[in-house]
Amino acid sequence: MSKRYVGVHLRKDGRYEKRFTIDRKRYSVFGHSCKECIEKEFIRRKEIAEHRYVKNQNVTVNQYFNEWIIQKEQEVKATTVHLYKIIYKNQIAPVMGTRKIQDLERRELVSFQSKLGQQYTTATTKKAINIIKQLLESAVIDGITTVNAAEYLPKIKKKSNERVARETIHRALTEEELKLFLKYAQTDWNYNAICLLLATGMRAGELGALYWSDIDYKNNVIHITKTVTVNQNGKSIIGTTPKTQKSKRDIPLNVEIRDILSKQRNFISMWTGERIIKLNDTVFNAEMQGIIYAKTINNSIKRILKRIEEIEITPFTAHAFRSTFASMAVKKGMPLNVLKEIMGHASYSMTADLYGHIYDEQKQESMEDVKIIMM
Predict the structure, then answer these.
(1) Which of 21, 198, 203, 325 registers the highest number of CB atoms within 10 A of its CB?
(2) What is the mean pLDDT of residues 118-135?
(3) Does 343 score more than 60 pLDDT?
(4) pLDDT in tens, 264-280
(5) Where do the structural domains in the chain lie, given as residue ranges?
(6) Which long-range contacts (CB under 8 A, 24 or more apart) does 53-57 make?
(7) Is the pLDDT of residue 315 over 80?
(8) Is the CB of residue 252 less than 8 Å from the CB of residue 178?
(9) pLDDT at 1
(10) What is the CA radius of gyration of the chain?
């Protein structure tokens, strides 16, 4: 028999509400379960008793964000919570953190959105506005305000001078760039890690979360089951799940990949003096034995690019290795549906959008070789 909670009722929006009275004043708390409501009532009573409770009409954006983000910790991944905190601190709080929720107006938010668009990229602007929309939507549910002033803001248009990611830091390296880069990368601590990224197309976070137990020589695959993530305090940790459900996949081994892994085993043995590799050890570590992640690889890339003298290579990030793998795989005839599985994309359309242009180039080249009417 389920436990009954006095004074708790289910609202039309699917959440539970608990009402209570203190000194003839009525209060309400909301939650996704009866138990959550009871816990919130206890906290609210304590705040009122200690004179720390702020009435709805006086709640500022800063104060409500601190409540809202705790709720989000139960709903989304720690990486998302960390991202919300960074964007709020840098883009939102300095402008409207001290404003009362009830005083926010649509025209004020339209102006804020416009100024954000002038200072930051379209992606950053969209993320900031999305946080405000969610925040105010929750404030409406909690009875702090009656209207979500951010609900009908103008659509954010991409800047005409903004280039798509694959044309800049996410671009694929040319064969000349790759050959030269690898020549100078050979002495870098993360050389084998860079080679594996290029040979498999895996994400830098997936590489950092790779254990020797994930290398399945019997079935000739690498099991991708997790990724490096950050906790709510921004510290890098190895998570228990991959980036998305589709990211959980097996990447087939080939001669090149086996050779890279063999070299990494030898590298570890040389530095540690231990000939036996433990299955519960990560395949790659940072130079100071910490977790390796995208920033670690990016720092290596910067060091290597500074040493290259022959030509100037446009700066790129670790994600470029993933794009380089995909581009070269396509050029060598790998079908898009196969590439989708190896890359761990959520959909075929995503793979086609990112790399379909390479097939267009191949079509043009192929047509040049087709001569039906010999003149």
Answers:
(1) 203
(2) 93
(3) yes
(4) 999 998 888 777 778 88
(5) 8-141, 167-362
(6) 56/102, 56/142, 56/143, 56/144, 57/100, 57/102
(7) yes
(8) no
(9) 42
(10) 26
**What is the CATH code for 167-362?**
1.10.443.10
The answer to whether the CB of 315 falls within 8 A of the CB of 305 is yes
Tokens 């084998």 sit on residue? 192
Homologous superfamily (CATH) of 8-141 is Tyrosine recombinase, N-terminal domain (1.10.150.130)
Evaluate if residue 164 carries a pLDDT over 60. no
CA angle 366, 368, 372 (to 5 degrees): 100
Residue type, 363: K
Query: Taking a C-beta distance cutoff of 8 angstroms, is the pair 201, 329 a contact?
Result: yes
CA dihedral over 56, 62, 63, 66, signed as positive or negative:
positive
Secondary structure of the chain as H, E, C letters? CCCCCCCEEECCCCCEEEEEEECCEEEEEEECCHHHHHHHHHHHHHHHHCCCCCCHHHCEHHHHHHHHHHHHCCCCCHHHHHHHHHHHHHHHHHHHCCCEHHHCCHHHHHHHHHHHHHHCCHHHHHHHHHHHHHHHHHHHHCCCCCCCCCCCCCCCCCCCCCCCHHHCCCCCCCHHHHHHHHHHHCCCCCHHHHHHHHHHCCCHHHHHCCEHHHEECCCCEEEECCCEEECCCCCEEECCCCCCHHHCEEEECCHHHHHHHHHHHHHHHHHHCCCCCCCCCECCCCCCCCCCCHHHHHHHHHHHHHHCCCCCCCCCCCHHHHHHHHHHHHHCCCCHHHHHHHHCCCCHHHHHHHHHHHHHHHHHHHHHHCCCCCC
